[in-house]
Amino acid sequence: MLKADILNIGSAEPMQGGTRRAFMLGMAGAALGGTLLSPSAADARSAEPETAGDDASVLIPARPWKVAFEEHYMTPHFSRVIRGDTKVTGETSVYDLLLDVGAQRVDTMNKAGIQYAILSLNTPGIQGESDPTTAVRDAQFANDELRHIVDQNPGRFGGFAALPMQNPRAAADELERAVRQLGFHAPLVNSFSNISGDDGVTFLDEPQYEPFWERLQDLNVPLYLHPRNPVRSQQLMFRDHPELLAATWAYLVETSTHALRLITSGLFDRFPNVRICLGHLGESLPFMAWRISAVYGRHAHHVKLQKDIASYLKTNFLYTTSGFFDTTATREVMKLVGRDRVFFSTDYPWMDMVQGGRWLDTAALSNAEKWKIGRTNAVELFNLKLAPVA
Ligand code: MN
């Protein structure tokens, strides 16, 4: 449980009169000189409805209250494979921020108004290891290491499991261990996995993963499908334009394609309760859903799907705002897929966590919507037991 001294950072003053609809800016707002107002305990309890209701009933507390779950870290053990793929060097500030899993990160979370961050090993993580035996061993090591990190700040950090998809059976076993024994909330897989050399890859729609999907569905946890760069032999379209690799554009192409492979393989007809979480507001897929569905539906295909493609994007996918702090786009995605399926996240340290937190704080969304995508959707999805923020 959260230690009281960690959370005791907000003003406990009673609410000033006549501002029931006022949005509390939180720590970030305080730093900016915004008015700090705190609801009474009773008001705060009523501010956690099952569903976002009347905006007038939702008060945003001054203390860190958000949940974020595309938040990355790494440890010295994984420096080699992660630096090889993402070109993080000891000279970049991101490198130090990835390695910080203690007080400095918690301090940044306070500034961003984030109460609870679910941490994941930085891309490509275990997926970048081409030797299956090493992948299995490293995934176990990573998850034990992450459990230790979480144990240092259990009220502020949670864990996503790293999985050795190079060995599907071992990946299923490690997922079960991570969820049942380590208390992790879900797995995060960095898209395709290397196997048999740097250009050999395996995608999650391939038949060897059937036992894995069965286990994921039984455990009733979503899978976060996170991007990585395409392998070198697949980077021809980026020739002479390395600036378009990674998060600028290549991640979107790679991960949205992987997600579509899952749909068109019929995965969600075989496992209707499997849920995939995508970052970056869905890697463009909600915006493209109509067109993909329309064009796909004009032709017969090897796998006959039970539903149109847009339907799967509304029933089997979840979306975070990681690295995409744009209110217009967020509103559109909420309209396209439903606001129950949209979640706040920041993509720290690749994006600025405080910028992300302040964006949601000040976005032109109702308090009810902020509370829902910033907190209660995640609480329900992962059955989180968070300390009260009143
Ligand atoms: Mn990320």
The profile of the biggest β sheet is: 8 strands, parallel
Radius of gyration: 21 Å
What fraction of the residues are assigned to beta strands by DSSP? 5-15%
Order of helices and strands: HHHEHHHEHEHEEEHEHHEHHEHEHH
The structural class is alpha/beta
**Poorly predicted residue ranges:** 1-52
What does it look like?
By secondary structure, the chain is an alpha/beta fold. The protein has a single domain (70-381), classed as TIM Barrel (Alpha-Beta Barrel). Helices cover 41% and strands 11% of the residues. Strands 1-2-3-4-7-8-9-10 form an 8-stranded parallel β-sheet. Strands 5-6 form a two-stranded antiparallel sheet. The longest helix has 21 residues, at 132-152. It is globular and about 55 Å long. The model is unreliable at 1-52 (pLDDT under 50).
List keywords for this structure.
single chain; 390 residues; alpha/beta; TIM Barrel; two-stranded antiparallel ribbon; 16 helices; 11% strand; binds manganese (II) ion
What's a quick, concise take on this entry?
The protein is an alpha/beta fold and 390 residues long. Helix content is 41%, strand content 11%.
Furnish the topology, listing elements before pairings.
Blueprint: H1 4-7, H2 26-31, H3 41-46, E1 66-73, H4 79-86, H5 93-99, H6 103-112, E2 114-121, H7 132-152, E3 157-161, H8 168-180, E4 186-189, E5 193-194, E6 201-202, H9 210-219, E7 223-225, H10 250-264, H11 267-270, E8 276-278, H12 285-296, H13 309-315, E9 317-320, H14 327-337, E10 342-343, H15 353-362, H16 367-382
Parallel strand pairs: 1-2, 2-3, 3-4, 4-7, 7-8, 8-9, 9-10
Antiparallel strand pairs: 5-6
Helix pairs in contact: 6-15, 7-8, 8-9
The structure holds manganese (II) ion.
